[in-house]
Amino acid sequence: MRARSKVLRDTGRALGGALIFSMPMLMTMEMWWLGFSMDRLRLALLLILCLPLLILLSRRIGFETTRAWREDVADALFALGIGMVTSAVALAVFGAIGPGMSFHEITGKIAIQVVPASIGALLARSQLGSERREEEDQQESYWSEMFLMAVGALFLGFNVAPTEEMILISYRMTPWHAVALVLLSLLVMHGFIFAVGFRGGTELTPQTPWWSAFARFTLPGYMLAMMVSLYILWTFGRTDDTSLEQVITATIVLGFPSSAGAAAARLIL
Amino acid sequence: MRTNGKDKAGAPASYEKSLEWVVGGVAFFFVVVLLGYLLGLGAWVDGQPPRFSIVVESVEQIGNVYQMQVVVTNEGDVTASDVTLRGVLRREVGADEARELRFDYLPQRSQRRGAFVFEQDPRSDATMHLFVTGYVEP
């Protein structure tokens, strides 16, 4: 009986998490358009990459303080399923999917929402749950810190990348604006990393000189955020038939929210 | 660097520490190259206004209409939006056929594709006029 109520509670939390995390994207029409217009291979690659990401994320945080990889895989698949159900139900209620649409269109629209929704489902425990992780788990290794940054960048980047404003901003920018945005991104990131780092869990302490944290966390974090941004832009077809300069500017624009997401990952995730 | 007991101290820790600095060095190099590229662009590119070149990629008969695929390239350094492309099929006998395409954005040094749909075969002896009628700055 207790086991059953626990399953119900976990499922409820996962549904809630999936909904909260994917709501902005479920209600963005560019996301629906991408569902039928984006390249199928890129969509497939996105879903394939999503699974190891969820597994690693579950390893680090998740429904259970799991130990065996088998359980992490199960948690990841569960989150993926919850993500699909949440997206399908929400899109159907919004009338974004329905009769008269091709299988291609419906599956595409759901598939593209699965990534943020399943991340949300997986994170539901840390966001909505009352349990905190044990003290011993709080010390992160450098690489798991980097992984969290990548997920944070992916999550916030995914939120804004589909909108037209993203590329419109990059079209309006001159190279000087781009330089300013790179510097601003680094500044914001460093502020977050310093502020969040002191909450414990990282090796950063008030005694760490700023340049040490900047070189070992902020700069690699920014590079990571830029790579994630470029990957998202490529996935959404924003880099096709576009000049190198334009691709770089668009990556810098998306890199701003992505880098903030990376730096604040420990707050969000 | 870690204090959670998994750390064996000494060699492995300092190895990992130096790896962190290597990653930091690579990232530093990345940011310097990025800023250098942008500053170079800012200093050397003189912001030429949008210029368009239009190339017919293919003509395909679909049912009783003809689809003509075109590729428009913006060769300037500034992005144009609301780019209107006009195609006029002028024949010796009979009325002209005029069609219009509109591209939301045509970024600098980038291409966009579209298609005109004609009732007559554009490959026939008719003459084809393709031109951009206007654009606005985004």
Automatic annotation (TrEMBL), chain A:
Source organism superkingdom: Bacteria
Keywords from the UniProt entry: Membrane, Transmembrane, Transmembrane helix
InterPro entries to which the protein is assigned, alphabetical: CHP02587_IM, DUF2391
Annotated transmembrane regions: 12-34, 40-57, 77-98, 140-158, 178-198, 210-234
Name of protein: Putative integral membrane protein (TIGR02587 family)
Annotated organism of origin: Chelatococcus caeni
From TrEMBL, chain B:
Highest rank taxon of the organism: Bacteria
Alphabetical UniProt keywords: Membrane, Transmembrane, Transmembrane helix
Segments traversing the membrane: 21-45
Entry protein name: Uncharacterized protein (TIGR02588 family)
Species assigned in the record: Chelatococcus caeni
